[in-house]
Amino acid sequence: MLVLGDAHATEPDRRETLLELYRSLEPDRVIQLGDLEYYDLPAPTWFVAGNNEDFDVIEALRAGDRPPETDNVHLLASTAATVGGRRVAGLSGNYAPTKYDLPRAELEGERRRHFTHEDVERAAELSDVDVLLTHEAPTGLLSYGYDPGCEHIDGLLEALSPSLCLVGHHHRHREAEIGGTSVVSLAPAWERYYTLDPKTLALEAHDHDRGPDSVSDR
Length: 218
What we know:
Elements: E1 2-4, H1 12-25, E2 30-32, E3 40-47, H2 55-62, E4 71-75, E5 79-83, E6 86-91, H3 117-124, E7 131-134, H4 151-160, E8 164-167, E9 174-178, E10 181-185, E11 192-197, E12 202-207, E13 212-216
Parallel strand pairs: 1-2, 2-3, 3-4, 6-7, 7-8, 8-10
Antiparallel strand pairs: 1-11, 5-6, 9-10, 11-12, 12-13
């Protein structure tokens, strides 16, 4: 299974890199961690929305609609799907303290990029989750001289106890064991791609010009 970090595919060179990965690797299924920004893809792709998306498309996908410029994309927005025999759940969006307590219906324009308490509460009610996808990181994974993690992601890890949590947004590869969950922040798709063995949940990182590096084996 192909796993990709942020794509930012509105930029032509990054879109070409994204599509070349699909062409060269010919995956039968793909997981992507947000900031996708291109929704007409060659293979079935399950993704969480990031903070950089076409939010009209994202809202249509949330509503179960299928806009004409989309193909093979499946949004995980406080929902779960069976992918490669594993139950994969996702929380779409990023965290804004001033918007978190609002109803999602009150978010407008670019503010639709955030998740709300309603989104987190719905995600926490999911069951039997093997892999959790988030755009925001939990605490204890990254540091910029401060911890950029979000306590609401910590709460989801505690509620769902997934074996593996994959994180986008930060454009850097980091790994940690948090509360019994293997958590990996992914490098962006133009730097690395990853492969996941659905049977073992072993994740391997592949630089575009190097061989694979083992990341986790759960």
